[in-house]
Every structure is written in C-alpha cells, then in structure tokens.
Amino acid sequence: MATLLGEYLKNLGVVKEKVRQLAGILKPRMNDLNNKLTSKSSPEEFYKIVYFAIKLSGNDDDEFKNAIEAIYPNRSRGNLLEDFQHLPNEIRFLKMHTLKQNEVEKKIGMAENKIGKLVNEKTKDLLAVELICFIEGLGLDVLITFKEIYGDIVLPSDSEDLI
Q1: Are 148 and 136 within one domain?
Q2: Residues 17 and 70 in one domain
Q3: What is the mean pLDDT of residues 16-36?
Q4: Angular region, 117: left φ>0, alpha ψ -120 to 50, beta rest
Q5: How many domains, in total, are found in the chain?
Q6: Domain limits for position 58
Q7: Cα distance between residue 111 and residue 142, in whole Å
Q8: Do 25 and 38 fall within a single domain?
Q9: How confident is the model over 64-89, as a mean pLDDT?
C-alpha cells in the first residue's frame, strides 16, 4: 500500500528512482517512505524529495503548498500566535521567539517534552510534519523556511536526461 508521499509522487508523474537519486536518499529508505505506512520522513528528506519531484514535473514553487496538503492533510493547524493577536506587531514578534516549549508541543501535536529531548540530543527524530506544523503555526512560509534551513535546491544541469 502506498503512503501519501508515494501517492503524491505517482500523481505528479515523476519517476521515483530519479527523484531518489537527486535527493540522495538510499533505495531502501525511499521504498519505505513510498510504501510503508509507518515510515515517517525527516524534514530534510521531505524537502529534498518533494522539491526535486516538483522541479522534475515542471511545476513551480507554489506546488510545494499543494504537496504539503496532499501528504499531510490531517496535520495539526495550531496557530502559535493566536493568543497574541491583540498585541502590537513588535510584541507578537517577541512572543514568536519566546514561546514556551510545552505550548508549542501541545499546539502542533508533538509529544510532550520532545523539544527538550531534541535539544539535549536524546532523540534525533524530528518529523517533517512536526517542523511543518511549527513553521505554519508561526505564520511563516514552509518552503522559504526550508530553504533557509537546508539551502536552495537546484536541479543539476544534466537533469534533463533524468526527465
């Protein structure tokens, strides 16, 4: 049974093997991400796979939002700043950078104390959906934020051979 990521790639009409190669994902891992319902992608895996697939399919960056919706339709949509809408813009900006860990975890559907475990390197399993929910919860653009975190992705000049 295909995962929602696998279905999305199929619907884009891209060759998953080409996407895998460009994204630098190992074949068994890509197979799991496409077919194993319990498999969860890391934020960087998600970004690379989806972005390369979008580019190979000839779509523009706006498709990234559609990909998120298709792959994570039931994600938490908690607005991390909703309680601060009455405050002036500069105060909301400060609050955005000083949110309490437990509030963030609760509003984006993350396990309790997971941020602390990530910070203390007791776990390294930040999920793509968790980072996406956090970014959206701050009212930021997911693709722009991923580019800030992981850098721009550019198709190699010989990628036309892959299409």
Answers
A1: no
A2: yes
A3: 96
A4: alpha
A5: 2
A6: 4-74+144-162
A7: 21
A8: yes
A9: 92
